[in-house]
Amino acid sequence: MRTASMQALAEDRDLSEVLGERPEITTFVTREELDRLLDPDAYIGTAVRQVERVIEKLTPPCR
Fold first, then answer.
1. Residue 16 lies in a domain
2. How many domains does the chain have?
3. Domain assignment present for 47
4. Angle at 51 between CA 34 and CA 63, to 5 degrees
5. Is residue 63 part of a domain?
């Protein structure tokens, strides 16, 4: 992943394009799956856990 990321950066290309050319990747996922997996609009990362932590801090303890 790091090598592909560095290549994409050096060549000013999309990471999904670089990964889509690698047999070690395409053996397991299609180009369409790569595009879907790397779609930033679909990535929420740690947002759910961050919201849970805020709610925990804002919720008063039961007495």
1. yes
2. 1
3. yes
4. 150
5. no
Q: Are 34 and 16 in contact (CB under 8 A)?
A: yes
Mean pLDDT (the chain) is 90
pTM exceeds cut of 0.70: no
Burial class (CB in 10 A: 0-12, 13-18, 19+), 9: exposed
Per-residue H/E/C for the chain: CHHHHHHHHHCCCCHHHHHHCCHHHHCCCCHHHHHHHCCHHHCCCCHHHHHHHHHHHHCCCCC
Token pair for 57: 């801090």
In a domain, 22, yes or no: yes
Tokens encoding 34:
């790569």
Q: Which domain holds residue 7?
A: 2-58
Mean predicted confidence (pLDDT) in 45-57 = 89
